Amino acid sequence: MADIQLKTSFKAKAVEPFFSGGKVSVSQDGKLMATTFQDVVYLTDLITGEKLAKIEGDGEVITTLEIAPDSSYLVTCSRSLQMKTYKLPEAKLVRTVKAHESPVIVMAIDPTSTLIATGGAEGAVKVWDLEGGYTTHNLRGHGGIISALKFWGRQGMNNWRLASGSDDCKIRVWDLVKSKCLSVLDGHTSVVRGLDFSTDGRLLISGGRDRVINIWNVATSKMNLISTIPVFQSLETVTFIDAGALTSYENKDVQLILAGGENGSTSVWDYKTAKKVLETNHRDPHSAEETGVSDIIYKGGDIGLLLTILTDETLLELDLSKDLNIKRRISGNHGEIIDCTYVGEDESYLAIATNSPEVRILKWGSLEHSVLAGHTDIVMAIDRSVDGRWLATAGKDRLVMLWDLQPLFDGTGEAICHSTYTGHADAVTAIALSRTLTSGPPEFIITGSNDLTIKRWTIPRKDGEVGKAAYTRKAHEKEINAIDVSPDNKLFTSSSQDRLVKVWDLQSGESIGVLKGHKRSVWSVKFSHFDKVIATGSGDKTVKLWSLNDFSCLKTFEGHTNSVLKVAFTTRGQQIVSAGGDGLVKVWNVKSDGECASTLDNHEDKVWSLAAREDETGFISGGGDGIITFWEDVSEAERLKDAETRAEQIEKEQELDNYVFNKDWKNAIILALSLDQPYKLLKLFMEVSNNNLEEGSITGLVAVDRAIGELDLEMVARLLKRVRDWNTNGRTSPIAQMILHAILCHHSVDTLSQIPGLIQLVEGILPYSERHFNRMEELAEESFTIDFALKQMNI
């Protein structure tokens, strides 16, 4: 068997949170999406899921943003009162202005991407030229915070309108050509949250927190209320959709209305009949969380995009051709990742337990995820079957569930809850499935709970049945943190807050060994698949390796600065991966004396979860920061790269020796500079200046002068760093000054100013240059003293 190559280098690929609530904007073609995450804006390709740009904020929360319909600009506003305009697609900041005297709450851009309207908390509405950045209108009249804005107009028309809604419960319709208010519409008793014009501009709909949709006639000078539709929920958004867009509705000539609000549903209304056509509820019926709809984004025509934004930071793409069925479910923020594991035959999916009752199944490399809904409280632990088809979940609701994920992988439907298990008297905190491959469901489930017991469950063969406990054992004196089953299904282990790890006979359920040595609670335990050893991670900041033969501690690995929360084996059992409360992931060499092969840092909070791939190409970590990181093993590629670099280095050093031997000083200096060998470079310059003196040369050789003049900026910067270092020493300062003279003679100030960090370099060179200059002046003065003394002596 070939020698096992230990893993030392890893490349991080991360799924990061990109939406923390607030405003979402999508370009008219449905390709580009902008989302807010605290003070940061993310630009994402909505079709491929690729993160295109991350725009850092000014430290204040983003209040609103908009992408121009033609995708030419992105405009953001924050609590700092700044309105920033970015040129797309490069996301380059082109303008920053103070928009209002108070934060901008809402924003809208007209269909031609020419004008942008902003509504402030002080009640003013301003209209700006998007490209020029100057104010075109300052509209006042509202008596409260501006809560909704909507443009209407078409290219080539001279009739441009803007509707604005406020928490004074009134709607104002403005004529932007004449810069005046055409009408004040008074029909709401609470904040107006949504406005939209019909395609022909004759109707305006408004929705508010007073639980009604109002339909207004705005075609005449005397605008009036046509009808009011009670919707029985506080609304946050309303919008028209194209006539005929909802294919299942028989009347293809009417523009239907989409509405969303506090009850977490997207509903469709026919304003002519004032009846609800369709409604789909997005809440998990098993969860106590009250998820609402914060916005609905509709892009009509050939795009046909319908995106519902939920208050739990989830985005749902709905299918208008299939009665608002969910086409895609996108999570903007998974929240705290409590546990994770690979699923699927080829491990192309990832199951994660977050701080919610839902388990999410992610397709790696995609924005989409599916949801396993069944628990009524936070899911504490998950485990997969050997073939990746079955997933067991354990919840704070004392419930254990077994899921068949095959329909999800096949694309034929959602995952099926195969069976449920009840019997624990407290939260179920640890779970493990059988480790042998079967044609049907796994053989058994082992669970551990805060009721201090462990249970072995017999899994029924048929779907929908309730599993029974084969045995129950009191396992520990404090809460159980983790359970793992041996690869041969003969043993299992449990770890607890009582600082103990116990080894159990799986068949009888009797304890056969106790592992003592940790000084604090043991958070994680894992069997090796290749040796008779167990790895544990503890709150005492250590990883320990234990023998299954005599239950003794073989090794202790120290290096984490906080609790070790998860451990896993990799590299055929030759290495241990650990995740800690210090936000670090560490890789340890089992055969060494506690050597840490690699420390990986891509999390900003505790790393709770860790899962290694069966093919050992890497592993995945999830933390309290909501970041999921796949650590791809690139050790072999790095080894090959290092070998190539060393071979190239040896070849170039031999080439340098040849240049020196042949006294080819020009090429020797250029090569020594490119190799970044300061000592050899200094010796070469000294050799040139001491032994050569061509007329008109600064360094001693005209060819060397020219070589300095032909250096690119990167090499000039490198040479200036050497000048800075040599200039600090009186012995080497003449060489430094000579080279500096050559650089200044052959490179203009404008060219040198383009060097990054030039100011810092000059600040390092200047004081010593002044000191050397003063010393030379003193020596010159002293030489005159000698001349004077000799003259007085008549010598």
Task: Please describe what this structure looks like.
The chain has 795 residues and is of the alpha+beta class. The protein folds into three domains: 13-246, Methylamine Dehydrogenase, Chain H, CATH 2.130.10.10; 337-637, Methylamine Dehydrogenase, Chain H, CATH 2.130.10.10; 662-782, no CATH class. Helices cover 16% and strands 42% of the residues. The chain contains nine helices and 57 strands. Strands 34-35-36-37-41 form a five-stranded mixed β-sheet, with no helix packed on it. It has a four-stranded antiparallel β-sheet with strand order 1-57-56-55, with no helix packed on it. A four-stranded antiparallel β-sheet has the order 2-3-4-5, with no helix packed on it. Strand 32 and strand 33 (369-372) form a beta hairpin. Helix 3 packs parallel to helix 5. The termini are far apart. The model has no long low-confidence stretch (mean pLDDT 91). This is Similar to Saccharomyces cerevisiae YLR222C UTP13 Nucleolar protein. Residues 653-793 form the U3 small nucleolar RNA-associated protein 13 C-terminal domain. WD repeats lie at residues 97-138, 139-184, 185-226, 372-406, 421-459, 473-514, 515-556, 557-598, 600-632.
